[in-house]
From TrEMBL:
MF-aspect GO terms: purine nucleosidase activity
Lineage top rank: taxon: Bacteria
Species this chain originates from: Fictibacillus macauensis ZFHKF-1
GO annotation (BP), single: purine nucleoside catabolic process
Entry keyword set: Glycosidase, Hydrolase
Keyword Hydrolase: yes
InterPro entries: Inosine/uridine_hydrolase_dom (IPR001910), IUNH (IPR023186), Ribo_hydro-like (IPR036452)
Protein's name in the database: Nucleosidase
Inosine/uridine-preferring nucleoside hydrolase domain location: 4-296
A GO-annotated cellular component: cytosol
Keyword RNA-binding (UniProt): no
PANTHER family found in the cross-reference section: INOSINE-URIDINE PREFERRING NUCLEOSIDE HYDROLASE, URIDINE NUCLEOSIDASE
C-alpha cells in the first residue's frame, strides 16, 4: 500500500478522483489537501468534505491550503463555468459540518513527508501552490518526497484555458515551474493524455438508475461537466477524466507510457502557463501515451463500487 496525499481544488473531476482513490486498496490516503483553482480554497474544502461524507468516509482529514498563487497575491483563474456555481455541477450535495483541521495543508504535507521519508506519494490535481510552499519552507523535502504524480500542463498539445496553457499551470505558473525544477521525481499527466480518457453520457445513465443517492448526485454533477465539454469540444463525445488519470497512474503506472524531459513553464506574457518539454535523460516522466480502454474500465469499476454501495 502506498502512502498518498491527494491535493485537490474540488471541482467535478477532482470529486471523481477522490471517489476513485477511496475505492483503491493500493492507496493509503493520509489526508486530502485543498487549494484554490476551480473554486476558492474554502469551497474546495467544503466540496471535498461533502464528497467524503456522501461516500461514507467522513473520518478522512481535509487540510485547507493556499488561497493565492505562489508569487502573486491575486487569484486570477476560477472555473465556475466548467464546474458550476458550487464547483459540483450545481448538484445539491448534503451539508456537512464546517469544522476544518487547524493545521495548514502546507504543514500537513511537511509533517507527513518527515514522518515517512521516501514513502509519500503526492497526487496533485490542482495548482502546485501547496507543494511549492512546502518545498520553499522545508527544502529538505526534495530528497524525501517519493514522487509527485501531477495533473497539469500540455507538452505536445494545445492548452485548455489559452491556446498555450492548461488550467492547473495557468492558475499558478510560478509554482508549477518551481516544483518541476525542484528535483523531486515527477510523473506529469497533462492534457497530452487526459484528453483521451473520457467519461461517456451512457455511463451516467447507469449511475442515475442505480437507485442510490450517491449514484444520482454524481450523475447530475457529471451531466453539467459533460454539457460544458459538448459545447466546447463537440467532437470528443464525452468529458475528460483529467484528475482520475493521475490517481490511476499512482496505482498502476503502466496505464501510461512516459518519456524523460526537462519541462519549463512560461511565467510571463501571453504564453504564461505553457509547459515546454525537451528530451533530457534525468528529466521528469512526461506521459505521452495512455492505455485509455484499460484505464477507463479500471476507473469505472472502482468508482461504481463506491457509488452503488
Ligand atoms: C485541470 O484543471 C481543473 O479544472 C481540473 O480539475 C483539472 O485538474 C484540467 O485542466
Ligand atoms: Ca483539479
Amino acid at each position: 500500500m502506498k502512502k498518498v496525499i491527494l491535493d485537490v481544488d474540488t471541482g467535478i473531476d477532482d470529486a471523481l478522483a477522490i471517489a476513485y482513490a477511496l475505492q483503491s486498496p493500493e492507496i493509503e490516503l493520509l489526508g486530502i489537501t485543498t487549494g484554490y483553482g476551480n473554486v476558492s480554497a474554502e469551497e474546495a474544502t467544503r466540496n471535498t468534505k461533502q464528497i467524503l461524507a456522501l461516500l461514507q468516509s467522513p473520518e478522512l482529514k481535509v487540510f485547507q491550503g493556499a488561497e493565492h498563487p505562489f508569487k502573486q497575491s491575486d487569484t486570477r483563474h476560477r472555473a465556475y463555468e466548467v464546474h458550476g456555481d458550487n464547483g459540483l455541477g450545481n448538484a445539491e450535495f448534503p451539508d456537512v459540518n464546517d469544522v476544518i483541521e487547524t493545521e495548514h495543508a502546507v504543514d500537513f504535507i511537511i509533517s507527513m513527508v518527515k514522518a515517512f521519508p521516501n514513502e509519500v506519494t503526492l497526487i496533485t490535481v490542482a495548482t502546485q501552490t501547496n507543494v511549492a510552499l512546502a518545498l520553499e519552507k522545508e527544502p529538505s523535502l526534495v530528497k524525501e518526497i517519493d514522487r509527485i504524480v501531477m495533473m497539469g500542463g500540455a507538452v505536445t498539445v494545445p492548452g485548455n484555458v489559452t491556446p498555450y496553457a492548461e488550467a492547473n499551470f495557468f492558475g499558478d505558473a510560478d509554482s508549477a515551474h518551481y516544483v518541476l525544477q525542484s528535483g523531486v521525481p515527477v510523473t506529469l499527466i497533462g492534457l497530452d493524455v487526459t484528453m483521451q480518457t473520457l467519461l461517456k453520457r451512457d455511463e451516467l445513465q447507469v449511475w442515475e438508475h442505480s437507485g442510490t443517492k450517491a449514484g444520482q448526485l454524481f450523475a447530475q454533477m457529471c451531466h453539467f461537466y459533460m454539457d460544458f465539454y459538448e459545447k466546447e469540444n463537440p467532437q470528443l463525445g464525452g468529458c475528460a477524466l483529467h484528475d482520475p488519470l493521475a490517481v490511476g497512474v499512482a496505482i498502476d503506472q503502466s496505464f501510461v507510457q512516459t518519456e524523460k524531459m526537462n519541462v519549463i513553464v512560461e511565467r510571463e506574457g501571453e504564453r504564461r502557463g505553457q509547459s515546454v518539454g525537451e528530451q533530457a535523460p534525468s528529466g521528469i516522466d512526461v506521459a505521452l501515451r495512455v492505455d485509455r480502454e484499460r484505464f477507463t474500465q479500471h476507473f469505472l469499476e472502482r468508482v461504481q463500487k463506491g457509488l452503488f454501495a
